[in-house]
Amino acid sequence: MKKRTKEILERLDEQYGTEFVCYLNHDAPWQLLIATMLSAQCTDARVNIVTEGLFKKYTSVDAFADADLKELEQDIKPTGFYHNKAKNIIACMKDIRDKFGGEVPRDIEDLVSLAGVGRKTANVIRGNIYHEPSVVVDTHVKRISNRLGLTKNKDPEKIEQDLMKELPQNHWILYNIQIITFGRTICTARSPKCQDCFLQKYCKEYKI
């Protein structure tokens, strides 16, 4: 690992600790899968408000697989893009019930075969449920990894590959958790708080 990358990770560890935190509330793997699908173009805080009632109403994979499309659309409407999300959730839960015996698969190829599940969602499941080393490339990781010079790519899959080479495995999941907090509080997309940033010396975009 490069000295520069090591220093970045050390500073993130000092600032945010090394505990694995999942910001989406869930009690079962299928609940995290649905919450992650709902989180596309939506804040985790809003998803948690919606899923609190949602998981009381639909208490199993079967309940979602057999859900009425129009009713589910209304139940998840506050998360946005609810037509697509509701359709994908029902199709995804049907596949989990019919193809995977009701269990959320751990293999990445099986996960991305599910309706509405891309690599980002698959890696959230692999990292949080199965503790498989995975790099999750969300909007914060994409933006900040470029700013820090850990990748020059814009394509999430290429960024994932770059970070897998650049970061030690024991930081793959942790990096995402830390960068989400960093991206929400300091290195925001618009008007980043550069003066308060503890990583400014590593930033490609910081101008003194």
UniProtKB/TrEMBL annotation:
Ranges for domain HhH-GPD: 38-185
Coiled-coil intervals: none
One GO BP annotation of this record: base-excision repair, AP site formation
Keyword line: 4Fe-4S, DNA damage, DNA repair, DNA-binding, Endonuclease, Glycosidase, Hydrolase, Iron, Iron-sulfur, Lyase, Metal-binding, Nuclease
Cofactor binding, note field: Binds 1 [4Fe-4S] cluster.
SMART domains: ENDO3c, FES
Cofactor: [4Fe-4S] cluster
Catalytic activities: 2'-deoxyribonucleotide-(2'-deoxyribose 5'-phosphate)-2'-deoxyribonucleotide-DNA = a 3'-end 2'-deoxyribonucleotide-(2,3-dehydro-2,3-deoxyribose 5'-phosphate)-DNA + a 5'-end 5'-phospho-2'-deoxyribonucleoside-DNA + H(+)
EC number per UniProt: 4.2.99.18
Gene3D superfamilies: Helix-hairpin-Helix base-excision DNA repair enzymes (C-terminal), Hypothetical protein, domain 2
Residues reported in the UniProt entry to bind [4Fe-4S] cluster: 187, 194, 197, 203
This protein's record includes keyword DNA damage: yes
Protein name stated in the entry: Endonuclease III
Organism expressing this protein natively: Extibacter muris
